[in-house]
Amino acid sequence: MSFVHIWDGLVSRHNKTELELIVCALRTIWLQRNRLVFEGKLKGPKKVWLIARLEVKDFHQQCGMTQIVGGVAKGTLMKWSKLAFNWFKLNWNVAFCEKNKRMGGGIVVRSWESDLVAAAGWSKRFITNPLLAEATTLERATYLRIELGLYEAIFEGDALVLINDVKGKIENWSWYGQIVEDLMLFFYHNNNRQLKFIPRIGNNAAHILVKLALGFEEEVVWIEEGPREILQCVDCEKL
Q1: What is the pTM of this model?
Q2: What are the pLDDT digits (tens) for 31-75?
Q3: Domain ranges across the chain
Q4: 68-238, which class in CATH?
């Protein structure tokens, strides 16, 4: 049976969203085959499926991204929406290098008037999975809120899989479930703490910060200031 016949069968039985996931899964399997042949390493089926889900998510986010020139997004830009008085927004993001098992985490904190309150960036080694990197970064953001003495806060990120898990309100038995359970307790029935998904185009400041953070040897925290690229992005989103 030719690939065309197999593909026709898949198209007739699955919708567009399912086909995207199937394509990413097949690509991941092919890459794993190459890795087995040349490196003698192989990931299990659960890891392959997880990678496929993350690739689909990244594909949709990349479709909505704008080109970044000099650290500031050009073209379509999601503008800042003013918050209620005395509310703060913590945007968080992660960059993950699977080859080096290294992550960069970043958090950008802004006031209800979009003024930069703080920023934090760091890198860690021996992180084995993007979801673990995202979960630990959101967890760090909850601690940063306490350290800054913020009461009412919105946590925004583009890690849709993690956010859905945290907001799922059911017991999580995944391998990173303990962190998810802790985050559930933090957000559950707390009107002064909100967790929201935002497309990467609206998470630009944190996205830029994590690229810088990959080069950090230890956590760096700025109060009412930050790297030039972050300041430019924050100012641009105010306009």
Answers
A1: 0.68
A2: 777 767 766 777 777 777 777 787 777 666 545 443 433 334 444
A3: 3-64, 68-238
A4: alpha beta
